Amino acid sequence: MTRRSLPRLQLFPLSGESLGRGGPRVPESTPVQPCAGRALAGALLIGLTLAPNAADAQARAQGTVLMSENEDVRRFQEQTGWSDAVIAGDTIYLSGVVVGQREGESLDQAYDRTYRQISAILGRAGASWADVVDLTSYHTDIAAQFQAMAAVHRRFVDPPFPAWTAIDVDRLVPEPGITEIKIVARRPAPSSQPQRR
Hey, which CATH number is domain 64-186, 3.30.70.260, 3.40.50.2300, 3.30.1330.40, 3.40.50.10330? Predict the structure, then answer.
């Protein structure tokens, strides 16, 4: 990727200004091109750092988006503008998968069904639970749900475990959802075989 050359920005005190009591001084001979202000220089650097590069912008345009295989869900995804997962380089970002507890279903059964759904999405992306590096779960009642989810989690995820952040929330979309699970995984190298569950 080629970046445009930007004018040299002043990110240190003007020539001869001290950086503080007894601090180093910028040599008088240091070439400095004045800019509109230090705030502008900082803003430009932040903008360059946070701005998506061309590769990021094209990540979704290169056939790396996984849509649902269920026609009804896919139609909803297309209407609302989201996918099951996006693969950007060697990183896989799964959209949050919402756990719904069906009538007569235990929490264990609901989480197991959802972990199997996540397994299928990871498999379509060429990965498995062994490749998950970060998991975020959003719970409508964390005290009642966390231990049940953790029990199922241990059946699917072996040590060393991924990072996991659990957050209590008021509600989820769709409304009857009790937990939403969001995953980030690394795609295994082509020569390694993903562990399937």
Answer: 3.30.1330.40
